[in-house]
Amino acid sequence: MATDYPAIRALEASESLGFRWRSRGAVRSPEEWHKSLWAEVLTQFLVVETSGDRPRGIVAVYRPNFEDRHAYLAAASFDARGPNPNVVLGLGLFVDYVFTCWDFRKLYMELPEFNLEPFATGVGWLFELEATMREHLFYSGRYWDRLVLALYRDTWRRERSRFLLPLGERNDAQLDESAIS
Amino acid sequence: MRLADGSRRVATIGEFAAAIANVARLDTAAVSPESLLIADLGLDSLGVAELVVVLAERFDMAGLAASAGDRPWRTLTVADLFGEYLTGDAPSAEHARRANGVGT
Lengths: 181, 104
What we know:
The complex is a heterodimer.
Chain A: H1 5-12, H2 30-38, E1 41-48, E2 55-65, E3 70-77, H3 85-101, E4 106-112, E5 128-139, E6 142-152, H4 153-159
Parallel strand pairs in A: 3-4
Antiparallel strand pairs in A: 1-2, 2-3, 4-6, 5-6
Chain B: H1 13-24, H2 45-59, H3 62-66, H4 78-87, H5 93-99
Helix pairs in contact in B: 1-2
């Protein structure tokens, strides 16, 4: 909602998180920022815990290609302290939602290699590494690779139960597995 | 813990550690009560999320899921989580001080 915009914008410009987001440290004008928040976006949500209303992260699907049936998936945690599993669990719900609503074969994730750490153990069995652009990005005195990962529908259907809490432990509607087959 | 037939009994630390080892994709022998979830077992955000689901499903630790976003995961050990499983209480204030680097 628009009332969340100031907090999101502050996080995007913060020292601890700003360089990890798509603007990578640049601070845009309010007008440009509002446009960029929804540019090419198909759908996006804030991740909010059921025990409170504090946003913990943001998840989005953007640049959809309905002809070739793929799109790009983005996720960011607002928590700079360390791992926040609830953002991953929120992302799991979101991926379920996306594969249910649209017939995408796969969702790409483009990220600098310094953003891989929270997901690194998933490469190979959950995400496929589909492209590496060598030394593509500059940050903090050196160049970093830009990675393109892909999450395939079939892989998600096989592995999704690992990231979806049983019904009693979450308030969100469970999406029926058959709906994403 | 929930058994295959739907019944429940209290798990041993060995069974608990085995479940964590499975999430970390390690041999059970590589997991000790003192193992730190992240530094020693190599769990990342993805792995911690998977662990939260396993503990909620198999060990009825729904409270862990409810407060997962505020846990000091970097300093939690297998024994910390097993203690929470047995007592239902989150790691103590002493743990929180340790997590914050106070008194270390």
